[in-house]
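Dear colleagues,

As part of the handover before I leave the project, I'm documenting each prediction I ran so the next person doesn't have to rerun anything. This entry is a single chain, and its sequence is reproduced below.
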Amino acid sequence: MMDRRQVLVAGGAALAGIGLGVMPAFSASVGSLRVASLRFGSLSWVLETIRLEGLAEKAGLELVIEDVATNQAGPVALLSGEADVIVSDWPWALRQRGLGEDLKFAPYSSALGAVMVPNDSKIAKLADLEGKRLGVAGSPIDKSWLLLRAYSRNTLGKDMADIAEPVYAAAPLLAEELRAGRIDAALNFWTYSARLSGAGFHELIGMDEVLKGLGIEPVPALVGFIWREETEKKKGPAIAAFLDAVAKANAILAQSDEAWEHVRGLVKPQDDAEFAAIKAFYRAGIPGPWTSAQTRSAEKLTQVLKDAGSGAFIGDKTRFDAKLFHAAGS
């Protein structure tokens, strides 16, 4: 599941500079941090940008990347102590916090998934999904699916699970099923929606529209960096340096097409159109600072998820805790 590889080492880089007779202009060491990253996932693009720009070295940060094979492996790595920081969604972290794990969250991406259909599809609105095969990434308790069902009940007066035929599958398989025409539409994660957008498919409805339709506004970032409070006590400067490096790398990716060319091998687009769509989706999802308004939206969304999933997704006994959010609790 995991393969430890140390990719950004401030001390090693400084010694290399001395060996070349160059005085390194790096900050004093802030320590090391183990970050779990899905290989070829969007975080790997940011980490590679951090490496290429020397952002960890400049901050005096020793960054150790723990490659994980699946999205599910990240939370396992955090809870087992194999990683200090992971990327996951805050509803999961909130549930874990309710179970006694004192976790913290800082936003990483506000990019959300969408229901995608072929450009030549006759499906023009949500109601047109009635009687159609609708692919759903994940399981019957996937948060996007629960929210889409709640939205359809509010807007159509019908549960999408009752009027469409849901087909549950892993995100990459679902994208291929849609490409092959074996399903009529697909509710998928943003990365796969972006790839489809560049390959002859368009968005029927985005999850941002769904959330706004459910009264969740401003729409809070759902995905972010998660760590333990205990880790922050021991490695607070390293966590702060890492979040700053990520912000700087994102600022570069937001503006520089050349920077994207350096990570194209990790993005693995099929063609230039797909690559352009992924860049656009990613840039649109770079979040700003977490605000008190987003905390209020997160609290409202917590209740919506509880109601939509009958507690199966987030847990009946999970209580909203604003201390989860790094900006709110700092």
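The domain at 2-110+220-329 is CATH 3.40.190.10 (D-Maltodextrin-Binding Protein; domain 2). The longest helix spans residues 229-255.

All the best with the project,
I.
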